């Protein structure tokens, strides 16, 4: 599900959507001592949606890609209409999950006198590469 965005995501989505064939007709008329007419017909390829069109996509729309089905344009689901919306923190802030409170009620996984290792992972390089 692509809800909108810019950069590499928009480029990837544009490529995944593919191209379409369009017919192009051009007419010309030359006037001089004699009048001549011309008609030119071409079949051209065009992206179904360009990166720019994807970047400025209506906020109420999304692009869905399901296994075995070509990507398609759809309306976003209005979560306020879902019967369980009342359980979300968007509905009422008291429904927000408090990690600190949850962890304080659980027994400690690592005992205070037990040795343990801490690993720090820097994802900034991966984040930059993804953009």
UniProtKB/TrEMBL annotation:
**Entry-linked InterPro entries:** P-loop_NTPase (IPR027417), TraG/VirD4 (IPR003688)
For this record, the Gene Ontology CC terms, alphabetical, are: membrane
Protein name (Swiss-Prot/TrEMBL): TraG family protein
Question: Mind telling me which Pfam families this protein's record contains?
Answer: T4SS-DNA_transf
């Amino acid at each position: 599900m692509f809800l909108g965005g810019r950069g590499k995501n928009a480029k990837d989505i544009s490529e995944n959507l593919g191209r379409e064939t369009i017919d192009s007709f051009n007419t010309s008329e030359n006037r001089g001592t004699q009048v001549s007419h011309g008609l030119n017909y071409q079949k051209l390829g065009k992206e179904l949606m360009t990166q720019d069109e994807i970047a400025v996509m209506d906020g109420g729309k999304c692009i869905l890609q399901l296994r075995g089905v070509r990507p398609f344009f759809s309306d976003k689901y209005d979560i306020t209409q879902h019967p369980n919306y009342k359980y979300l923190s968007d509905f009422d802030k008291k429904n927000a999950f408090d990690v600190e409170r949850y962890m304080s009620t659980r027994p400690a996984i690592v005992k205070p006198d037990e040795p343990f290792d801490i690993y720090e992972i820097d994802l900034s390089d991966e984040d930059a590469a993804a953009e």
